[in-house]
Structures are given as C-alpha cells and as structure tokens.
Amino acid sequence: MIYGKRITLSTKGFSDIKNITGEVKSIVSHSGIKNGLVSVFAIGSTASISTIEYEPALVEDMRQQLEEFIPASKHTRHSQTWGDDNGFSHIRATFMGPGICVPLSEGGLVLGTWQQIIVIDHDNRPRSREVFIQVMGE
Amino acid sequence: MIYGKRITLSTKGFSDIKNITGEVKSIVSHSGIKNGLVSVFAIGSTASISTIEYEPALVEDMRQQLEEFIPASKHTRHSQTWGDDNGFSHIRATFMGPGICVPLSEGGLVLGTWQQIIVIDHDNRPRSREVFIQVMGE
Amino acid sequence: MIYGKRITLSTKGFSDIKNITGEVKSIVSHSGIKNGLVSVFAIGSTASISTIEYEPALVEDMRQQLEEFIPASKHTRHSQTWGDDNGFSHIRATFMGPGICVPLSEGGLVLGTWQQIIVIDHDNRPRSREVFIQVMGE
C-alpha cells in the first residue's frame, strides 16, 4: 500500500524551523498503513528535513549554528549571478539534505519521546513551503 | 514483506561511533527479504546514522571534526535552560540527520567494500542507545 | 514491485558534483513503477547524494563551502596511517551522508522545479563512481 500527500506550510525563511510531527502522524493515520516507511521530503532546493527535540531554546541554537556555519551575509556566486541573494539558503539545504525516512511500526512512527520531525526553510523570505509525505507499507 | 527490529547498544557519548553493519546484516538475513530497502534509524534526538570506512584513525578524525564544528564546550540556550549540558549533542544530531536507507539487492546490502553503517552517539554521557532497523521488500 | 540498477559515472574528485536526475528518471521510467520511493545511494565511503539547484555558480559555491569546512589540505590520522591522502574526502562523505530517498508519485519524481539530484564525489582523484538506484512501489 502507498499513500502520498503534499502539505503546505507558511514559513518565515532564514532557517525557520517548523515542527510537522502532528501533520505526519495525521497522514499516517489517514493512510491506514500500520508498518513500513514514511518518507518526508522537502520540495525545492532551499529547505531541509531532520529531527530535533522541538523546544524554543534548542530551535534557536540550531538556527544560530546554521548562521555561524553559512552566514546569510555570505558572498556567493549564485547570488551574484541571479541577484536573488539566497545562495546561503541553497548551500545550507544541500548540506543537510532534502528528506528523511522514518520507520512505521504497529501504527506508530518510531521516534524518541523528545524527537520531532522538522522542516527547516532556509530561504531568504517568507514563503509557502511544500513537503511531501509518502507512506509505504501494509 | 516488512520486518522491523529494535537493537540496543552501549555507547560512551561525545560522538562515540559504533559499527553496526553486522547487526544490520543479521536482521536482513533473519527477515528473509532479498530485495528492497533497509531503513536504519536512530531513536532519540542526540544520535545520527551514516556510513564510513570503519578504521580507528578515520573514526578518530571524524570525532575530532565534529568537536571542531560544534564543540562540547559550546554555550547553548538549550543547556542553559535545561541544565543537562548536551546542547551540542542535539545540534550535531540534527545537522547530520537521524537515519539512512540502504538498498538491498539479491540478499546483500548495497555497500562499498570499505563502507560500514555506523551510529554516532553525540550525547554527553554513556547510555543505552536504541536503533530501529526496518527491512521492506520481497 | 522492486527495480534496482547500478549506474557508473566518471568523476573528477575533490567534491565534483554531477547531476544525475536524468539517469534516475530514466531508471524510474524503465521500472514501470508509478508510486513509491526511489532510493539513490552512493556506493563507497567518499561520496554523497543530495539535491541542489544545478547551475554552475551554485555548484561552485557548494564545492567552495566544502573546501572551507573540511579543506583538502587538512591533516588527518587516516591519511597519515594509510598514505592515500583522502581523509578529508571520507569526513565530507560521512558528514553529508550516503544517500537520499525521493518520493515517486503518479509516475513522476517529487522534486521542485529547480531541484536536481546530485552525486558529490569527494575523493582526491578522478575515478569511476557507482551509484545504486532502487525503485520500490507499484
């Protein structure tokens, strides 16, 4: 069995981090699939998916770390060529990767108690961000 | 067909790197599945899964690199707020991601000769770490 | 249904970035599978898979970023021990991870318009690089 759904989120950019665990659980529940894999994939080249303990202090630490690694002010050939000033967003996204797969077992996502699924929107402006959830199994 | 199993490892923390290729192969063998995907997923928000040439010198290089990127001494809001001093562990884990999928073909994991599957436990103490292996295919 | 194929690429090393979206699409098309997951996995311990907006300026930015993070000149125990001078390649590869899964929906890869699938060969020499594409679904 396969059940896929696209969700849309409002994001603020600059590595805005949103907890989408609830949305993923809801889609899994709606799919009726109990065991298998759940792929969570960010559509577009300026966002990433990962997991985190979603609490405000750590979310801010993670955003700061990304800013330290690859500053929004970083001079890039991409921004210079295209004038859209989001070269740093692309580099952050490619480095972290576009998606993850979470195991699904006996109807539940296999996650730790303090482990939430997040989308990080690295783009340099507020936008509507699409994430695809693919549930596959039985 | 789907076959999932949770394994438990003793880890030392501070990005302790353990080779779990043998455990994954054993679970795949036990599943009877010959072709498909094998998801290897770290349960919890302070560990990562990746691959490496598992030899002691490189394992030490990788640990040192993580320490250079995000030092264990790094001041974080998370540690300040919760007093558990493992903010760096979380940041390392979110950056590297919680899991990977390895293709399974004709009964064998599709890996290079010097490519092993590892769990990296970034936490700041020895602990018992759980990893979920989900084998899906036919 | 499961359909797997190994492709071979000529790479130049030092985080040479190749767009393999066309190859992946072609394999998906040949598989006849319309919905499911497509695993793209780099065989070996010195390459990574991710996505990027594949245009020359950004590709160069990404290569430069990797060089800034983990310079090819970096002294590593691995290179010292084995004399093959590619410790930096391994560290880059383990950090970024060996593969991704892309959802497949109604016959098409779920990718953004400017989002291409890439292999990054971090090794320190031109070589032949193998990537495994596993299509699973119905």
Write a structural description.
The structure is a homotrimer of 138-residue chains. Chain A is built from 4 helices and 8 strands; from the N terminus they run E-E-H-E-E-H-H-H-E-E-E-E. Chain A has 138 residues and is α+β, with helices and mostly antiparallel strands. Chain A has a 5-stranded antiparallel β-sheet with strand order 1-8-3-5-6, with helices on one face. Chain A has a 3-stranded antiparallel β-sheet with strand order 2-7-4, sandwiched between helices. The longest helix of chain A has 14 residues, at 56-69. Chain A is elongated, with a radius of gyration of 16 Å. The model of chain A has no long low-confidence stretch (mean pLDDT 98). The interface between A and B is medium-sized, with 33 and 30 residues.
Question: What are the defining features of this structure?
Answer:
five-stranded antiparallel beta sheet, three-stranded antiparallel beta sheet, 8 strands, Jelly Rolls, homotrimer, 138 residues, alpha+beta
